[in-house]
# Entry
Amino acid sequence: MVAFGADGSVYVSSLVFDVTCPTAVAVSRSTDGGATFGKPILAQHSNTCAVSDDKNWLVTDTQPDSPFFGRIYQFWTEFLPTGASPQVVRWSDDHGQHWSSTHLLASRRQFAQDSQPFVQPDGAITDTYLFAGHALGDSIRRGFILRNGTNAGSGTSIVAQTSFDGGAHWTRAVVVARNVGGGPAGIRCCLPLMAGDHVTGRMFQVWNSGGPGVLDAVKVSSSADGGQHWSGPVQVTPGHSPNVQYINAAVATAAGRVFVSYGRRDLTNPNIIQKELTWSDNGGATFAPPILLGPPSNLRFAAVAGGKFPGDYTGLSATPARAAAAWAVSSKPPNPAAAFHQVLNAATLRS
# Structure
């Protein structure tokens, strides 16, 4: 995960572990545009194998009117021995050299993961994430199976919480979307993503709604009031076809335009995934016909981890002048003796 600071610093967040455990979250800083990086600093370290740190996401406060201008927020999920997985955050005000204590967004009994934070123009920070019930008590005991389409329609939601004091305290969770899909059967993928416009503060959440019993589509919802209320879902992908599936949707926004990218899979040739990009010029109400990005990806040669694995996330960013996408592409290995070959591709669309 990469984030850019207000002073031009480049920060990289990474998961580190000793063989399989214990785990940690490290942050590295570059002051020369990414040419070189300083020694990684541990933002978090679990000194027990009973806790697994995962799904790290880093965001920086670059809003000039924010009282926390320059702050770095490190989010991640703590997978606990109870089976719960709460969302947590730490922050740094000295370029990642020192970090705050760990703060919970909600309950330690949550089944949650996939923080997608955004810093609003006034410095408030909103985080959206997946929520699937609680580990204890009378609430739903469910947990995550975010792969192979098995959890689609089962009650997994995207929720939003906001902090007005730099991450110390958080509002009650509000629902962004319900019955979020985990991607097509046989493919491990498709964690939802959220992005916001740094000028207007408007946020857009994108997710994959596909899976058993659910029409396969990419959908988006937006908030214009700091994450307190969210619009009804708008379908981004065109039409409904039983032979078409979508994976790894991503969203970015700038200067009033909303971009959404995703992989399109036609089941008449199920190994092939084609990256596509579309956009909206009316706040996400409607989207243009998509354009193709790069060569098709062949799942026959993709990584395997609980199914074909093109990655949990894909990347998309936008400025007023351009949009940039990054995604995994698998293809026939150059070495005939190899079974797999997967690389990262990137493309830029200029206005």
Summary: Confidence is low (pLDDT under 50) at residues 136-153. Residues 1-180 form a domain with the Neuraminidase fold (CATH 2.120.10.10). The chain has two domains: 1-180, 184-351.
